[in-house]
Amino acid sequence: MAKPGTADETEANGTDAPEQPIPTELDLEEEFQRSDIQSVLDQLDRELVGLASVKMRIREIAAMLLVDKARRQMRLETEPPTLHMSFTGNPGTGKTTVALRMADILHRLEYVRQGHLVSVTRDDLVGQYIGHTAPKTREVIKKAMGGVLFIDEAYYLYRPENERDYGQESIEILLQVMENNRDDLVVILAGYANRMETFFKSNPGFRSRVAHHLDFPDYSAEELFKIAGLMVAQQQYILSDSAAVALREYIPKRMRQPHFANARSIRNAIDRAKLRQANRLFAGRGKTKLTKNDLMTLEGADFRQSRIFDEPGASGAAGDHGSTKQ
Ligand SMILES: Nc1ncnc2c1ncn2[C@@H]1O[C@H](COP(=O)(O)OP(=O)(O)OP(=O)(O)O)[C@@H](O)[C@H]1O
Ligand SMILES: [Mg+2]
Q1: With 70 as the cut, is the pLDDT of residue 9 above it?
Q2: Ligand 1 neighbour 191 (Cβ under 6 A)
Q3: Of all atoms in ligand 1, which is nearest to the CA of residue 97?
Q4: Are the beta carbons of 190 and 154 closer than 8 angstroms?
Q5: How many other C-beta atoms lie within 10 A of the C-beta of residue 227?
Q6: C-alpha distances out from residue 99 to 16, 86, 106, 206, Å
Q7: Binning pLDDT at 50, 70 and 90, where does residue 68 land?
Q8: Is the CB of 188 under 6 A from ligand 1?
Q9: How far is CA 176 from CA 169, 173, 190, in A?
Q10: Is the pLDDT of residue 99 over 90?
Q11: Nearest to 263 by CA among 230, 289, 309
Q12: Whose CA is closest to 88, among 278, 215, 211?
């Protein structure tokens, strides 16, 4: 965090100039505009469907940081707020996406110096052999310093069944850094809600250092349809009317299948539809010339070839990794 009386101020005042006078009043709106945080919040609203409570928490955190900055300018007592967080939710609910945005926001509000995100799992932190874990964990922390360290499936760090598990060593280093460097590193622990709960129970040190718990609920079929619309548009594709109808039928079917992963499954379904569209266009080559619109349009058939539309009750056949049906 940029502390009062550091580089900027010194530069502005010359080397041994006295500290800037305390302002009598501050314009929060001006600060808000300067941070350009509104554009990030607007983008968040535009590009992320649903997630109302997550978006609200992000606004609250932004407000808190702005006020904290204003208090520092008035030389009021401020402690660097603890901003370590936990993101809980099922796969594909937007945790990684929001973590990236969060890093950007924390940077714009000058809480962290760089605003980059280092995303890791247990294997990046914990070594296989004695003596490997501490350097591995420290290396990751060094990379993340000045930004956000995102630990996915954080509960794998803790393996109580293993008496001498090296994960514990990593946990201890992390806890120390979360306490001592909390003004320059934000740690986000992510994973399934129930497992995170167990993890926090066994590791109260983590619980007490995490100030914000954000829950990412599963999306409704309607939200998933909207997400599909956004994804398609972002990739400069269009859904034909028949494709929209097919996709609306596809989504609830996919939701009932094994390995359903919320928005991630939708992204995969669109990828496969794009593949089938390409096949379709290729198969028709030489017959007609293609327009820009042809190249952009996904048709109902591009979705209906999915195995999900096979016999009712067909199960397990349409995992995320399934190829296009022949
Ligand atoms: N609310 C949303 N609106 C639009 N797109 C979304 C939304 N949530 C997720 N996505 C998109 O879905 C994909 C998966 O999201 P993301 O990787 O953030 O999920 P995750 O919770 O980190 O999943 P995992 O647990 O599998 O890592 C990304 O392509 C992301 O852009
Ligand atoms: Mg993720």
Answers
A1: no
A2: no
A3: 18
A4: yes
A5: 23
A6: 40, 10, 10, 18
A7: confident
A8: no
A9: 11, 5, 19
A10: yes
A11: 230
A12: 215
